[in-house]
Amino acid sequence: YYGPTILLSLHLFGSSSNPVYSEISSVEAASILAAINVAATYIAFKYIDRIGRRSLGLSAYAGMLAFDLLGGILLMRGILIGALIAFAGFIVFFAYGVGGTGWLIQAEYFDTRIRGRMAALIAFIDWISNFVIIEVFPVMLSTIGLAGSMFVFTALDALALAIVYLLLPETKGLSLEQIVKLFGEHRVTEIKKYSKKELEKTKPLN
């Protein structure tokens, strides 16, 4: 949401004597980052059935954590072009492992009886979270700065990584019926330990 504003604040484009050129260049750079987002999302959906949902989630949050941390450190040291590269790396990992696959996962994990309601609830939570970010991020910038904000996001990435590692099972290659069985007969903390072979004994793949 604040891509052009953040890039403009780095003073990497143009000069203070030509603010219009700087703003245009910042928007162009943000557009390039958006294109990277689209490309990474396409690659994720193309290979998600080969790589797996859990693997994408784990690698994505690990990559986001690394690039958020790197971006914060580089900003503190004044290496602004390096920070820009870190932003691009963050976007790649977000797009291919979180941005799109989350919507696929929520469509697969819920029984058809409640899928519509759960999809609506998840969409509501997603947009509420977006609203919170929109409102809070400018306050963070004005109080702890961009580098401090990156460190806050690093902590959130670590929390998300732990949640995916502990609670998200791999459903690659499973039918909807098997996924429902997986969630219906086991506690959440046991799901990731439940093997695909055990599922195949009770209900064959379609």
TrEMBL record:
The topology of this chain with respect to the membrane is:
Multi-pass membrane protein
Give yes or no: UniProt keyword Ion transport.
Answer: no
Which compartments is it annotated to reside in? Membrane
Kindly list the GO molecular function terms attached to this UniProt entry: transmembrane transporter activity
Provide the Major facilitator superfamily (MFS) profile domain boundaries: 1-172
Where is the signal peptide, in residue numbers?
none
Presence of the UniProt keyword Transmembrane helix in the record:
yes
**Similarity-based family:** Belongs to the major facilitator superfamily. Sugar transporter (TC 2.A.1.1) family.
Q: Which PANTHER family match?
A: PROTON MYO-INOSITOL COTRANSPORTER
Would you tell me the protein name for this molecule? Sugar transporter
